[in-house]
Amino acid sequence: MSSVRLEHLMKTFGDTVAVDDVSLTVEEGEFFSLLGPSGCGKSTTLRLIGGFEDPTSGAVYLGDRDVRALPPYKRDVNTVFQSYALFPHLDVFENVAYGLKRRKVPKEEMRSRVGDALRLVDLDGFDRRRTHQLSGGQQQRVALARALVNKPSVLLLDEPLGALDLKLRKQMQLELKRIQNEVGITFIYVTHDQEEAMTMSDRMGVMNRGRLEQVGRPQEVYELPATAFVASFLGASNLLEGEVDSADPPLAKVRLAAGATIALPAERLPVARGAVQIGVRPEKLTISASGKDERADLNTIEATVTLSTYVGVSTMYECRTADGATVIVYVQNLGAPEDAPSQGQKVRLGWSPEHTFAVEPRGRS
Amino acid sequence: MSSVRLEHLMKTFGDTVAVDDVSLTVEEGEFFSLLGPSGCGKSTTLRLIGGFEDPTSGAVYLGDRDVRALPPYKRDVNTVFQSYALFPHLDVFENVAYGLKRRKVPKEEMRSRVGDALRLVDLDGFDRRRTHQLSGGQQQRVALARALVNKPSVLLLDEPLGALDLKLRKQMQLELKRIQNEVGITFIYVTHDQEEAMTMSDRMGVMNRGRLEQVGRPQEVYELPATAFVASFLGASNLLEGEVDSADPPLAKVRLAAGATIALPAERLPVARGAVQIGVRPEKLTISASGKDERADLNTIEATVTLSTYVGVSTMYECRTADGATVIVYVQNLGAPEDAPSQGQKVRLGWSPEHTFAVEPRGRS
Amino acid sequence: MSATAAPQKPRARDRAPAPPRTKRRGRWLGLYSKAVIAYLFLPIAVMILFGFNDPKGRFNYTFQGFTLRYYSPSELLAFPELNEAMRHSLIVMGISALAATTFGTLIALALTRYRFRGRGAFNLFLFLPMATPEITMGSALLALFVTLNVSRGLTTIVIAHIMFSISYVVVTVKARTATLDRHLEDAAADLGADPWTTFRTVTFPLIRPAILAGALLAAVLSFDDYVITLFNKGAVDTVPTWIAGATRIGVPVQVNVLGTLVFMVGVVYVVINLIRTRGEGTPAIAPR
Amino acid sequence: GIRGEAERNRTEENGAAQDPDYTTDEITGTLNFANWPLYIDRAKGKRPTIDDFEKSSDIQVNYQEVIEDNESFFGTIREPLANDQQIEWDLIVVTDWLIAKMARLGYLEQLDHSRLPNFEQNAGEVYKDPTYDPGNAHSIPWQSGITGIGYDPKRTGREITSFEDLFDPAFAGKVGMFTEMRDTMNLTLLGLGVDPQEATVEDAERAQQKLLEQREAGIVREYYGNEYADALIRGDVWITMAWSGDIFQLQFDDPDLQFVVPDEGGILWVDNMAIPQNAAHPIDALEFMNFVYDPEVAAQITAWVNYICPVPAAQDILAQAKDNYTQQVAQSPLVFPTPEMEARLHSYKTLEEDEEEAWNDLFNQVIQG
Amino acid sequence: MRRGRLVPFLLSLPGAIWLLVFFALPMATMLSVSFQEGSLEEGYRFTGTATNYTDAVTKYDFILWRSLLFGLIVTALTLVISYPLAYWIAFRGGRRKNLYLLLILLPFFTPYLIRTLSWKFILADSGFLLGTLKDVGILDEGFRVLATPIAVISGMTYNFLPFMALPLYVALERIDGRFLEAAQDLYSSRRETFLRVTLPLSLPGVFAGSLLTFIPAVGDYIDPEYLGGVNTTMIGQVIQREFLTSNDYPEGAAISFLLMAGILVGVFLYARALGTEEMTG
Ligand SMILES: Nc1ncnc2c1ncn2[C@@H]1O[C@H](COP(=O)(O)OP(=O)(O)OP(=O)(O)O)[C@@H](O)[C@H]1O
Ligand SMILES: Nc1ncnc2c1ncn2[C@@H]1O[C@H](COP(=O)(O)OP(=O)(O)OP(=O)(O)O)[C@@H](O)[C@H]1O
Ligand SMILES: [Mg+2]
Ligand SMILES: [Mg+2]
Question: How far apart are the CA of E215 and the nearest CA of chain B, in angstroms?
């Protein structure tokens, strides 16, 4: 059974279209992430589901019930607000216990559940603190605990880990996953961190300017982005202009503006002819000195290294192709720095047709 | 000349020691990051520099001036607040123009500078919006523009990009760097994102429980963490218990609890004898089927794969060693999935002594 | 350079308290505020003083000599109708302040939390009772009661007081509800609180200062009202109406004594609480 | 003469609407009595006169001190009376001019004088058949007072005898006048040598001129209600229009203060008992009216209230009292005016409605500059 | 269609009904009275005449202006006096805030007549205040406060102070310290922080307080009656006399409605000038 269903949902504020014709079905127990740039309508979508905004048009279903007429407190949904919205007149314990009190959970149980929730977010011993005595991250964790403690059938989380450091975030991610598995509740999770979305979600949706551009399993969306926006939003993506040469299965051919011909599975072409953009993820690229051993089964292009940056786990190279396009390459720092390409060096970039995708050239944006 | 100097700075709230004996010198024009877990005292440190809190003890110097007696508005410092603190009675334009107005910048110049600042944060055309009509990320960007537009000699930024998506964040990171280079102002930058800290900073400090645990250039701190906390905070780090076997240069030897003997540059040992923890970053590890070609110049240990997770750029393997310690390995997804180790498989993990570091076993924390 | 020199600086210097930037100004402000409060109490001091007066005639105008006579029970109870009037005043004040605060707060919430048709007109309408001269309102209301043949008494006084207090409460409470963070109410609803519970547990605590202020204003308005009460009181007197009548013969000292006692109840309450919150208010008031 | 005729005409006019008879001819055992605060004798939180009456008559008195002043009290009972409704009172005490006005409007019951033998027997002659209520048709006096001039000789430095002293520029800013239209206008008319009863609208205009001059010259400090007494004893005013009873009281605190009936004449005003139209217990009210005209009772009331007593015989009774205070009351010309004083006293002019409007307009222009 | 539509009406219902029945209805009758003619004796009849209004304007325009002026002065004075007080309570009151509020109001739980008498005692021409100053020679012997506009304005300022202070407090109390910090960060001195941030954020309180002070002050009659002298008559006294002494109800009603109209226009202009309509709803 579907847990949350949105049908042609639309929300405008004056001239601003915050949510634009969004249709979406989230299954029960699913971990669904909404990903998208700042201001694309993620929070507004959650607020529509939570019942804090009335849709301009379209419908919201929880289970099989049209809930447009239902006020927020009658929806079995809990929200972690982006701005935390902690009650300033209550202390940490009371904030977290608030929902349980409303449901008349017995004192003893309440105390133990609140205790558990606070332990979960690593805030043991902060029970009696006032919210303004907390750091940003601590406030966010209280907000999280306040929602989690209720174990609703659907949990809406608006960037719930945004203010947390990587370590705590990782830890909380695992905890959230565990809770979700354990209790089997549906998560709709807004994040701007695509790695988070990818590691945690069963499925995810990418929003842009109020529209849902692509919905799918993380790997699917990542490896085969449907639009140029999705491609570029999910991590640095290299997009190169080209023209369809042949669209025959199994491997279609696209001639790049820069000259090379690129092979890719034919079914990935969005159009049978004309202009396309072909793409490849930076980490799928290998970088080798120009002229070195060439493998026929790889797509290759020639380029010049313009910049190399150390980023901890890996090194990032910015390369420029013959027609001026920039291609980004990530190389994991395995510890053989002697053969690392240096700035200005001519290199050959290679990747497998399997890792090649194609999108329509950007119309808008 | 030093731009900001903290001397034995201490701040307590009741029983909580938020900042604990922090001494630090930030040079003029430097990009300095403060990194640390939630609640470790980063914001409080910034607030002490900005003048919003009075230190419990210790001193703050801006340039060569002891500014403890100086109210915030007399300090040539601007802050981007973690909670944005946008003026609710002013619109976006007026918020950004606020500081310029106070300094009587001529109308024309003001208008153009505010326009530039808004363009910088990608908020063209939002001039007349009220702050409550903005999304979380948009608010954060306004806060950023409001501080940047003043070009102070020191800019304090408290997680200024926290609410932004990766793409915008990357873009803003570059812009911030550019601005900083151009205007030559000192940045003190609080972030919980160590990648951000590492890519952007000239130097960084890692805080834990109010104390500054290590200060140094990013690569230095990352590759040679001084404490177990820093090691584990800066990205997943593998720490293995051991005992110093020999401390003689050039390569010292440490015998692990799990059995293997590990070589590392002798000067990296924090102690000449007794217990240590040796560490290695997950991305420095290679993973190969147990029993395969062994290189004598590498440190190796045997382990079993317990979990593999796809994380986009790379795949993460969790492995267990003989004595039960967990070792994390990142392998970049180069696209040869056929020889990827599968769960349960026995593997050999190898890394160069160069990538090995050692810290004192965790006392507290 | 100074980085090395710094640690050698005497420890005492580090511990030197940061210059009290805000505190000094706070002291002036505190002094001023206390002066204003003292000014508000000035006439009360005179009232108390004349409660100890021993006038020879019936007018309590000039200080003739000190006596505690009027604090003796027999003298205090010499005018039962005065005490009765005080009782009426307190009853009317209690009920009308409570009702007006309730009604007014609800209206303030409606006006600031919702946009609805006729909101602007309603807003304007709410100013009218404040803008209407008391006598006009009083006699108009009396005409209504007469037409409906309602006999005047405590009930009609209460009705009238509620009527003219509502607007004051609305305006006071609105000053706060207008800028309340709506996300907090959203959060409460999200956590399963129905509108009433949301109000009780979140909205109310957050606007409590405003409601308290509104209630106090309503109480003062009621306690002090003369003209409107006059028209709708029937056979019942409140303190202001009784005193107004008594001026002709001479306001007895007992009025001052009673006023002093009411005032003292308030003072004692305040003092007890001041002691209880010792050290939590401004440093200047709390004993060092 | 003319007055009584007009009165009869009115009563006949309203004869149909107005029940000429009382609502009952029986003693009901209840009396709702509206009076001014502190306007009856008190002892130990009780009202001896009321208690005595209840004991002697078996009538329960619901005594309420609800009248603040004539005008506002009239404002509150006018609506129901105009609607021919019963009001809660069987007996009210209001000043003479209001008696005239209410009688004119048909708001008062006629008094059955056969039930008031004490009044016929004991009332002072000045109080019988007054101009404001010919034949005491609707009212008999409760207490009365004189409007004259009060002053502080220490400050004025001289004795005051004349109305003109209120216009002495030497006292500029230290002179008090009344907001009471009738007091001020009638006294001024007397000052101008006009008998109020004979005054025309032209006379009233002259009086207004006189008052306006006083005002323009900055002689008047303030137009006072009851608070003039406070101002006088405090020295804010040196000389002021005054009521006899107030000065009598002030003299206890400052014996130097003086009250004079000016040479040109003063005003005797009378607070009267009357029965509102449709009253539920008229006979009980008449019983009470009769009761207080017993000299002993009258003396008891006057001993406490200290206003002018309508029963001359009370003076002798009070004079026999032992305590100092009561002696003073008995001897004061401010409580029992001397015949010489009485000779100079006049009543308010009884105003027809349009006259009243005209006088009000004239006077309002004086006090509302 | 759902939550929202009915709620505001339900919330307003009790108060609105109360005001409709006990205020609007009687006042509507009063409005019709203002168009009546006649006399007390003959009764007043509705003729739709406007003479009551024209009369009122010609007779009392000066007093009306004076009342508005006094109201304005009193509003300004109470604002200036009580703003720092409200500010202090709001920001430095700690947990004693409510107590200070109570303290401000405590004096007003004594009968106004007693308070006024007390003021007369304090301000008497040769009382302990002026008398002393005169004895020392600081003040001229003829100087007085009572029975002057100063006395009326001071009296009203005193009596209306809480009506200004409380709404101000209410608005100031909720101002988030973060905004003040942000302002200081952006080079605002204390003064500027106050002018640019604190003050604007407290405008709803300034507005509310001004209404609660100005509106009743313009129609006040107690203070001018007891503290005023010959040139301090205010419109409230005129209306009082029309109703009580002259029994000219139509005229009294007409002046009342003129006054109300004047006040509403003033309030409207004020709201415009302050731009707080949006903030105060
Ligand atoms: N006003 C206060 N009263 C009491 N404790 C406080 C107060 N402000 C901060 N703290 C405590 O001081 C510690 C440091 O807070 P700070 O805000 O500096 O953390 P932070 O490093 O900025 O964390 P985050 O990344 O979560 O924002 C925290 O434990 C916090 O709870
Ligand atoms: N109350 C409002 N009035 C007008 N515009 C609004 C309002 N609320 C949101 N918007 C606009 O709607 C758009 C979507 O806002 P929303 O808060 O859903 O973005 P978001 O995806 O959550 O962004 P972020 O990641 O920055 O929080 C934004 O452009 C925002 O400015
Ligand atoms: Mg958002
Ligand atoms: Mg922080």
Answer: 27
Answer for the pair B352, A335: CB distance below 8 angstroms, yes or no.
yes
Q: Convert the pLDDT of each residue in A95-104 to its tens digit.
A: 999 999 998 9
Q: Could you tell me the pTM of the whole model?
A: 0.86
Cα(first)–Cα(last) distance of chain B, in Å? 36
Q: Whose structure tokens read 């007109």?
A: C121
Q: Quick one: tokens of B340?
A: 């990827």
Answer positive or negative: Cα dihedral of A9, A11, A15, A16: negative
For residues B202 and B193, give the distance between their C-alpha atoms in angstroms, rounded to a whole number: 15
DSSP code for C70: G
Dmax (CA) for chain B in angstroms is 75
Before A106, cis peptide (omega within 30)?
Answer: no
How much is the pLDDT for E35? 92
pLDDT given for residue C4 in this prediction:
38
The alpha carbon of residue E58 is apart from the nearest alpha carbon of chain A, in Å, by 50
pLDDT for res B332? 77
Domain E75-232: what homologous superfamily?
MetI-like (1.10.3720.10)
From chain C residues 70-99, the ones with a CB under 8 A of any chain E CB are none
Domain-wise residue ranges, chain E: 75-232, 234-274
Tokens 């201001």, residue located: A39
Determine how many CB atoms are found less than 10 A away from the CB of residue E29: 15
d(CA B165, CA B119): 17
Contact E82, E165 (CB under 8 A): yes
Summarize pLDDT for A58-88 with one digit per residue, the tens.
999 998 889 988 888 888 889 999 888 999 9
- Chain C residues with CB under 8 Å of D39 CB are 248-249
**CA-nearest residue, atom 17 of ligand 2:** B135
Q: Is the omega angle on the peptide bond into residue B250 within 30 degrees of 0, that is, cis?
A: yes
DSSP summary character for residue A271: S
Q: Alpha-carbon distance D146 to D164, whole Å?
A: 18
What is the b/e burial string over B168-179, where b = at least 16 CB atoms within 10 angstroms of the residue's CB?
Answer: bbbbbbeebeeb
Asked if pLDDT for residue C219 goes beyond 60, the answer is yes
Does residue A312 register a pLDDT over 70? Answer: no
pLDDT of amino acid A43: 93
Query: Is the Cβ–Cβ distance between D176 and D165 less than 8 Å?
Result: no
Give the integer Cα–Cα distance in Å for B282 and A313: 8
CA closest to E225 among chain D residues: D224
- Total residue count of chain B as it appears in this document: 365
Which ligand number lies closest to the CA of residue A45? 2
Single out the residue of B296, B218, B223, B311 nearest to residue B263, CA to CA: B296
User: DSSP string spanning D331-343?
Assistant: H-TTTS--HHHHH
Q: What was the pLDDT predicted at D280?
A: 93
Token pair listed for E10: 């339900």
Which regions of chain E are under pLDDT 70?
1-5, 275-281
SS3 D348: coil
